[in-house]
Amino acid sequence: MQRRxxxxxxxxxxxxxxxxxxxxxxxxxNPLDDILSDGEVALTPYVIxxxxxxxxxxxxxxxxxxxxxxxxxxxxxxxxxELGDLRVIPGPPSSVYANEVLYPPTTSRREILRxxxxxxxxxxxxxxxxxxxxxxxxxxxxKMRKAGAAARSMLVEAAARERGVSxxxxxxxxxxxxxxxxxxxxxxxxxAGAAKIAPPExxxxxxRDQWTVLGKSQPRVDMVGKCTxxxxxxxxxxxxxxxxxxxxxxxxxGGSLRGFDATAARQMTGVHDVIALENGIIVVASNTWFAxxxxxxxxxxxxxxxxxxxxxxxxxxxxxxIRDGSGRRWRDDGDVDRALADVAVIEGSYHVPYLAxxxxxxxxxxxxxxxxxxxxxxxxxxxxxxxxxxxQLTGLxxxxxxxxxxxxxxxxxxxxxxxxxASAVRAARAIPGLPILVTWPREEDVTHDAYRPLASAAxxxxxxxxxxxxLDLTVCSPGLQESGRHRSELDFDRAxxxxxxxxxxxxxxxxxxxxxxxxxxxTANAPRLLPVGFWRSVGESQNVFFTESILDELAHVDGVDPxxxxxxxxxxxxxxxxxxxxxxMSDWGGDLPAGSARGLAYARSSDAATAQVLQVTxxxxxxxxxxxxxxxxxxxxxDPRNIEAxxxxxxxxxxxxxxxxxxxxxxxSVDQSNFHDYLVMxxxxxxxxxxxxxxxxxxxxxxxxxxxxTAAPALxxxxxxxxxxxxxxxxxxxxxxFV
Amino acid sequence: xxTDRSSPVELRINGSAxxxxxxxxxxxxxxxxxxxxxTGTKYGCGIGQCGACTVLMNGEPVRSCQVxxxxxxxxxxxxxxxxxxxxxxxxxxxxxxxxxxxxGYCQSGQIVxxxxxxxxxxxxxxxxIDAAMSGVxxxxxxYGRIRAAIKTAAARLNAAMTTADR
Lengths: 739, 166
Known about the structure:
heterodimer; A: 5-stranded mixed beta sheet; 29 strands; globular; B: about 170 residues; about 40% helix
């Protein structure tokens, strides 16, 4: 983050005032301190006012989801300012910016969530500033408004003191305090006075019917930069004397580098250095392409893979685990065994492959080690972990590591991992004094991901009189935390003391509100295989496919309408509402042209009710996806146009995986390497996505993953309706062609 | 790999002359990004599959990762050359009106490709858009808004053209 000329901060929280139920900073703890010059003051982590205007510190990172804009809009609303009049600064690493939805203090459910991501938290003693899991708005909805309201209150009080009038007579508008006579003082001139005023402990928030910014679609603060090539991604960082590095590692993930000969590579154009890693090399050159060419010419000897060599063996490991029967029971309603004893049982198994993230911006980071200080520029979903990695690898104290969180060219969970930060820091450590941009070529990105795990499911079920009577579901996928601990070279001491968690693998499977009288969900213990990690919608991405496909099977066996059947199992009002809305939107049950069909899926995704109907058509023997109708309960809609964008995005993301997405392994190496063989949906294949926003009005929900989980089952159910073929494995294109 | 250093070459980029003295095999993408600091053009795949690096060469869209310096001729236009935040190109303005970008990383390639499409098909059909734009990947699934923004931009450019003709 560049040094800024702060005159003053607002929302003073000296002494640790409780604002919004959150204990904020004492001045000594202020994470902004190290970016201030002498005489500059910032008393709050969220709102800064200087001579040029008002800035909002956003505690979450922008990876495309529009969160900078919506978090800033929460502050703008309470400050009576337009969003466009605020500047937005991503928060530096600090536990002050902790994600308190993922890392709350107590309760068992929350304890599970805490454990779910514990292995990624980096420093054991600091609460992570994690962006992900649809939590940013849930975390910031009250917090950011309180920050804005407190700042406004202090500015008004400062104006009242300056003119010797009662604060009650003053109002605020357009970044200024307005007096009864119509005169005004801009916030920028009141900041110095406001700094001397004690902050309100619990400032009142504007009632919703007085909102003028929230609830309305706002132009995103990052839009102009992203449409003019001027937005700064980490890969665009350019510094004086900068060198460019390329990573090349053992294609058998986690396998060692036994030896290498870089004699020829070192003679090549522009090559500066070849750095050895435990499991690969970094070639550093005067530009990225020279480094890429030289990296190919390094002779290497790689060690073997620490997992079975083929996809078939990985899949067999899951099937064996399910057959073995040991695992954790997440739900056990009624008596499944008795219910399935003397009835016609429908049974089967499902399977999904590993998936890569393949963010558009290849993984990269810049690191610069000089004078006992490390600077890191990285598009990252966790600045506290980024800082911790920098400190661990250089031996510097945390405060000597500055993290500059840039825009991300896509995150989707991939930039929670710290491997790409570590590569840059290792290069900087080898070549101190010069800034180095270390890029993973696309081929390294696709072959060295922390993949969405492959997963299998086995089920037995029955249905009678249009209602499922029993469902016994066992799912199995390698654990994310288990994988994260083992591939990390960092100190996850505290995480190691915890047992193996399986929550990520159970998400979406056990927590659906269907009232099936005999209902058992088990996660079978999978072995550790390929490295796996968090992928947009996490366990829901496979488990909702399993559950919603199985329910569709039951409906068709019994000849009951899949929508009516789901409604008969749900009394959760928002769930019923989204299903009824999606039925209306999609004309569910209405006539279709010959050769077309619809499929439905529903999920509670991160607590929010979501539903999707896909319409497909058979064109020359191939499936064309014509249209998606998606309905999501957001609780309270803060920015409808951005919500719509996220729903569209999450639907297309899910459909990319459902139709084409697949990572396979041969000889211990990932077979796919770039966009020619790791296929994602293109313009001509992508359906129109129509979105309807449901506001249940209570809690607020995130939307970043909202239509991902339902995409695959809605598609599979539509394909069944169209062709009579029940495809129980993804990607569908292995079974049926797409246009 | 032997060096293949040629004498300095002069490139015409966004209306300005740039002298470059580097291996002639270096792809235009890396000349722009690493040698000249024009980082608006993005690296996505390096094999001409994703379109993030699309620039115009004499008005034609090319994948700059596939064009060695030795093959560069005439005028190069990058995203920076279309317009700036203070002086937007009509296609950029339409992109902003439709709030197309999410992560935004592919959008330079999308916008440059859209400009070339509209130049060739002033009133592009959905099929024209599919044909011209399917080579540019978007992982955020912004395709629906890209399509809408292209239609708005094309209509507006046509209206401006019609007005100018009068």
